[in-house]
Amino acid sequence: FFFFFFFFKQKTAYEIYQCDWSSDVCSSDLNNLIDRILLNAMLGVGAMGVYSMGYQIASIGLVVATALNQAFSPLFIANLKAGEQARRDHDDAAAAQALRAVAQAGLLLTTAVACVVLCVSAIGREAIAILTTPAFDESWRVVAPVSAGILAWSCYFPFAQAITYNPKRVRFLPVITVVAAAVNIGSNVILIPRIGIMGAAWATIFSSSTMALLAFYIGRASTPIPYRGSRWVFVLSFCSVGLLGLWIMDETISQTLIRLPVKLAMAAFAIHCTYRSAGVTLGMLKRFVTEKKV
């Protein structure tokens, strides 16, 4: 909240960008810690440890999302600048194509993260059993819901780029994260006493989804990008159903030799449906990783 007082004093676009981006990073980091702070206060260090182990396994998806966002940023800027130049040259077709390329790259980022979180959730319970002691046996319960929250984070990344690109709109980034933090705190306070560590996992979903939705609406007003809504809905739906199915398999099948093959088959099917619904090809993935423009 200190940054709210500070960044409204800034005068230049550079000062606004630097201050607002710093406050966004700080509030995002704090938002990621809220669930563990409240778990420790309400249920004790044992519950926090069990939750943290599952969160760390699921965080593999967040590492991938962050890395892909680093690749997406120069691509986003390069294509938007190309579109602006095309408009100055009165080439509307080229300008529209540049915006479509940005929209497709953003969907590709989220699709890649969706495939990763499905893989992580498919082997999460078995990985925890191998890597940890029996004290963490219940950590698997939060892997799939936290992965769903990370999927929402992956949507936030491309939407937030549209805000970052417009210096006059950057100041909304810390507003988004503070609102998400409020949702996170409220959800944790309500849910943790009722459903324990699963309450913290659901709070992660709610706060991350809040960030993504606010970034989408503010970003659309800042830098309009022609996202294909139907494809986004299908990608998120297939991944969400897949995560739910994997969690149910973990809950209902006790024998590892039966559960693991079933989950791997389910994850493979969900991944296939996810990337096909996004219209992703291997050539597009290669260009996303190796080129600055699509």
List keywords for this structure.
disordered N terminus; 294 residues; mainly alpha
What would your notes on this structure say?
It is a single chain. Helices cover 84% and strands 0% of the residues. The chain contains 11 helices and no strands. It has helices at 2-7, 13-42, 45-58, 60-88, 92-131, 143-165, 172-195, 197-222, 229-252, 256-278, 282-290. Helix 3 (45-58) crosses helix 8, helix 4 packs parallel to helix 6 and helix 6 packs parallel to helix 8. The protein is globular and about 65 Å long.
What is this structure's SSE topology?
Blueprint: H1 2-7, H2 13-42, H3 45-58, H4 60-88, H5 92-131, H6 143-165, H7 172-195, H8 197-222, H9 229-252, H10 256-278, H11 282-290
Helix pairs in contact: 2-3, 2-7, 2-8, 3-5, 3-6, 3-8, 4-5, 4-6, 5-6, 5-9, 5-10, 6-8, 6-9, 7-8, 9-10
Quick structural summary:
84% of the residues lie in helices and 0% in strands.
Derived structural class: mainly alpha
**Percent of sequence in beta strands:** under 5%
Number of helices: 11
- The sequence of SSEs as H and E is HHHHHHHHHHH
Oligomer kind: single chain
Sheet with the most strands, sense and barrel status: none
- The unreliable regions are 1-24
The shape, in one word, is globular
- Strand tally, please? 0
- As a percent range, the share of helical residues equals over 70%
Average predicted local confidence, pLDDT: 86
The N- and C-terminal alpha carbons lie at a distance of: 39 Å
Q: What's the gyration radius in Å?
A: 20 Å
